[in-house]
Amino acid sequence: MRQLAELAVPLAAGLNGVAAGIMLSTVIGIVPMMLAMPYDRYVQTVQFLWPRYDPLMPILNGSALALVVFSAVAVGDVPARPVLVLAVVLLATVMTISITRNVPVNRLVSSLDSERQPTDWARIDPRSRWRAWNLVRTVLALLAFATNVTATVLLT
């Protein structure tokens, strides 16, 4: 089992790294662009991007989480175990934030008509809220990546 874990941890780090990189790109590029867009372009952009990100990100984060959970159990009592447990907590938190905070906003915006701005849009505009939660989960994903890399080093 330990040999499988020694293979699983670097794979988890790779998957986690790809997901964290994608999330970082949203923080530094996509979100600032969306904040500057008028209502119609913002809605159209979310409706274009979300179906592309939605299947990929849960697969990347979920697979990384599953591999890290397996590894934390399989490695036995070694210095890498607490590091792996921390990675599990971080990745689980990333997924929880995604499911409970960001996905509902994406669903809401995807259901809007880009040609009919709600009269209370200034009050309900979810972009700032989405940005804040995205930043939190991105930082956690980057920390999980660093943690998974550390665990990989400790296992070699």
List its salient traits.
single chain; mainly alpha; 87% helix; 0% strand
Write structural notes for this entry.
The chain has one domain. Helix content is 87%, strand content 0%. The protein has helices at residues 2-36, 39-74, 80-111, 121-124, 127-155. Helix 1 packs antiparallel against helix 2 (39-74) and helix 3 packs antiparallel against helix 5 (127-155). The relative contact order is 0.20.
Kindly summarize this structure in a few lines.
It contains five helices and no strands. With 156 residues, the protein is an all-alpha fold.
Task: Explain the layout of strands and helices.
Layout: H1 2-36, H2 39-74, H3 80-111, H4 121-124, H5 127-155
Helix pairs in contact: 1-2, 1-5, 2-3, 3-5
Work out the helicity level.
over 70%
Overall outline:
elongated
- Number of structural domains: 1
Radius of gyration: 18 Å
End-to-end separation in angstroms reads: 15 Å
Strand content: under 5%
SS-derived structural category: mainly alpha
Poorly predicted sequence stretches spanning 5 or more consecutive residues: none
Mean pLDDT equals 96
Number of helices: 5
Largest sheet: none
Q: Strand-and-helix sequence, N→C?
A: HHHHH
Q: What is the quaternary state of this protein? A: single chain
Number of strands: 0
